[in-house]
Amino acid sequence: MNIMLTSQRLASVEEIQFKAVLSDLDGVVYRGEDAIPGAVERFNLWQKQGLRYCFITNNAEKSPAEFAEKIRRLGIDCAPDQVLTSAEVALDYATKKYPVGSGAYVIGSASLKARVEAAGFELVESGARVVIVVLDRKFDYTMMTTAVRNILAGAELIGTNPDVIRPIAGGSYEPGTGAIIASIATSARVTPTILGKPAPEIIRMALEVVGAEARDAIMLGDQIDTDIKAARNAGVRSVLLETGVPVKGTPSTMPDYVLAHL
C-alpha cells in the first residue's frame, strides 16, 4: 500500500529537525530479543549528541526497569526513567479514580500484579472495582469468565493497549493485548477504557520525561493504529518505520514521514 500520497518518505531521519525522540520498542528497536538493524547505532549517536529520548511501549508485561535492562543489553544507554509502559498510564488513571484498597482483577504478568498491589489495590477474583488487562500468554477461558463476571457486577474494564498483533523474533507475529481485551469486552458487552497508545496520555507523559514541547519532538513507530495515531492525538510529528508490522489496507491516519529503517 502506497502511503506516500500524503506522507513524506525520508531517506534518513537526519532530513528533519527535532530536539527529542519518543520511540516505540517492538518493531522499531527490537524484534523479540534481537535488535533491529540500525537502531542501536542511531540511538547511540543521539546519546553522544546529547539528544533526549524516551521509549514508549504498549507492552506492560515488564516494568520500566526490566525494559531498560533489555535495551542496555542490546547496546543502547537507557535508564528506567527513560521508559514508559502503558501500565504506568493505566495505574495513574486507576489510582486517581478509585480509593486505596479497591479490588482489582488483573490479567497479566506477575510483575504487573506486583505493581498493581504496590499502587494500593487488592488483588481479587471477585468483587473487583476494576479489571486490568495486559498481555498474558496463559490467558484462558476461565480467566475470561472471571473478568466478564466482575465486569457484569460493575467493574470497569481497563485495557493497557488495543494492539491485536505484535512482531516477534523470526519475522513472525503473535496476538496482542487487544485480542484479549476484545474477547472480554465482546462477552461483557462493554467498551473498554484504553489508556495506552493511541490515547495521547502516554505521549504527554513522555514529553515531560524528555522536557520537550510537542512541536520539538518526533514519535517513531511501526503501527498506524497505535503509534501514529497516538502521536497525531498528542500533536507530535510521526515517523512510520517499515521495520515492524506491515501496513494493511488504507489507514485512517497517515504518518507525517515514512522511513525504511533507522
Give a topology summary.
Blueprint: E1 8-10, E2 20-23, E3 30-31, E4 34-35, H1 39-48, E5 52-57, H2 64-74, E6 83-85, H3 86-97, E7 103-107, H4 110-118, E8 122-123, E9 130-133, H5 141-152, E10 156-159, E11 165-168, E12 172-175, H6 177-188, E13 193-194, H7 201-210, E14 217-221, H8 224-234, E15 237-241, E16 257-259
Helix pairs in contact: 5-6
Q: How much beta, percentage-wise?
A: 15-25%
Which outline best applies? globular
User: How do the SSEs run, as a string of H and E?
Assistant: EEEEHEHEHEHEEHEEEHEHEHEE
How many strand elements? 16
Q: Give the CA-CA distance, first to last residue.
A: 21 Å
Question: Over all CA atoms, what is the radius of gyration?
Answer: 18 Å
Q: Helical proportion?
A: 25-40%
Counted by DSSP, the helix tally is 8
Strand order of the largest sheet: 1-16-15-14-2-5-6
* Nearest-integer average pLDDT: 91
SS class: alpha/beta
Residue stretches low in confidence (pLDDT < 50, at least 5 long) are none
Question: How many strands, what sense, and barrel or not for the largest sheet?
Answer: 7 strands, parallel
Can you put this structure into words, describing what you see?
The chain is built from eight helices and 16 strands. It has 262 residues and is an alpha/beta fold. The strands form four sheets. A seven-stranded parallel beta sheet has the order 1-16-15-14-2-5-6, with helices on both faces. The chain has a five-stranded parallel beta sheet with strand order 8-7-9-10-13, sandwiched between helices. The longest helix is centred in the middle third of the chain and has 12 residues, at 86-97. The chain starts with 7 loop residues before the first strand and ends with a strand.
